[in-house]
Amino acid sequence: MSGTNAAGVRTTAPWQRLRAASGGGNRWVVLAVLCVSLVLVALDATILHVAVPSLTEDLRPGSIELLWIVDAYPLVCAALLILFGTLGDRVGRRRVLLLGYGLFGVASAMAALADNAQVLIAARALLGIGGAMIMPATLSILRQVFPDRRERALAIGIWTAVAAVGAAGGPVLGGFLVQHFWWGSVFLINIPLMALILPLGRWLLPESKGSSDGPWDVTGALMAAAGVLGSVLGVKRLGAERDLLDPEALVPLLLGVALLVLFVRRQKRRPQPLIDMRMFSRAAFSTSVGCIVLAMLALVGLELIAVQYLQLVLHLSPLETGLRLLPLTFAAMAAGATGSYTLARIGPRTMVSLGFLLTAFAVLVLTFMGHDDRPVLLTVGFILLGFGLQTTLFAAYESMLNEAPAATAGGAASIGETSYQLGAGMGIALLGSVMNAAYAPGLAGVPGVSAEASAGAAHSLGEAYQIAAQLGGPAGEALHAAARNSFVHGLHVTLLVSAGLLVAGAVMALKLPRAMECEADGAGAGEGDGVRLPAQACAEPDPAVGRVSGRTG
Predict the structure, then answer these.
(1) What is the largest CA-CA distance in the chain?
(2) Can you give the pTM of this predicted structure?
(3) 279-516 has which CATH code?
(4) Which residues of the chain have pLDDT under 50?
(5) Using CA atoms, how far apart are residues 306 and 294, in angstroms rounded to an integer?
(6) What is the pLDDT of residue 361?
(7) 426 in helix, strand or coil?
(8) Which homologous superfamily is 26-206 in?
(9) Residue 240 has what pLDDT?
(10) What's the confidence (pLDDT) of residue 541?
(11) What does the DSSP assignment read for 530-551?
(12) The predicted structure's pLDDT at residue 316
């Protein structure tokens, strides 16, 4: 609180001075708060996976309920990113972020204490709503408090590295908690952190808004939410069912795509659109979004298959599997920490292309994985994979955000995060389908195994092991060996396909700018009249573009 000292001079409490500084020179404190919140959102995307067997034994959910327990969070989060990203531009990004913190904490407590599957599904959906409030707000506030592109590049490097740590650390932390406590502890850890970060965010984060001209397009926001939900759900269903004609996948996918097409047409006609579609006419912006989709497609699909390989072929525990993936996390952290330096010297085009090529090389290295554990090979491959993909994601995010006007940073951030989620869903569907196509034929005609048993074993390696155990004897051993051999063969085929997609990404990245540049007049992307200068000449933009205030009351 404020007061006066003995000399009659008005004084300010230390926490108030820190709060006032957070919008300016203390922007690194703001970054720290944003990164802590991002870790929690990223953790919740993966931490539940290792707790599924434990909660299944406790809550006894049906197969559909179990599917929604896992998928409710990412589906709802992906669907609402555009809605809350653009809402933050209108009503205040800090305001939306703080509401997201509160909702995330309440939903975490609800999930931890859930005594049936329905309550847990509802809690996971609420977590998705909170995550959709938090994710685009963190990136758009970062865009505002770091107007200088060189500093912003460093901040985005830290931001992307933290996101990688959260996502990759989920299985490790989840495995530890489930092993020592109960499955609800994977949600309970969010509560003390949110109790800390909510008042810190209220005191330290600056409020910022974009343009508030004209009414907010509620119909368009809901149309985008339904379109993304249908598209992501359809893609996930295709990945699970492996059937392009499955109505449960095809209907939501077609409806989702149709709604997104109508959303784009609506935005083009409106004088004050939620998202300025002219951003996609800029090659750097549209290419960056495409690179994010392609990078996530490779990352999530490869991680899923790698986890299955480590657990089902090498027979590692969930905790051991998470520890084996740690080199990928550390490499991603290194790529984020050095990304700003690299980007300033070689430019977005070379950085993204080299990131894709390094990742493709890592994937080819991993094709030497076989039936036996090769820890050195796996460690080298995961290090190259983590460094290459994080290099690509960092440069793509930085280029995308730089091309967007500061006044619509929330909308641009939501596009980037939605691309991230779509890429993840497409990776599971596409690479999963390739894996299944290469795996299933090897189980046909196994001696002593009926056609019905072979068809069941073709669904997955885990199911094949179960059927082999039920058969027993020579037939069970033959099916077990055939399934294991077919999985390794399918893994090699999938890795080769993934390497081809990554090389295509390297070619796509050639449309990005050659050098790291900025607008000399600070007009921001989309204005069209700014003079481009080298990164070394970047100056602070005009403060009138995108309002940032130190008011936090």
Answers:
(1) 96
(2) 0.71
(3) 1.20.1250.20
(4) 1-25, 520-553
(5) 18
(6) 93
(7) helix
(8) MFS general substrate transporter like domains (1.20.1250.20)
(9) 58
(10) 39
(11) PPEEEGGG--PPPTTSSEEE--
(12) 79
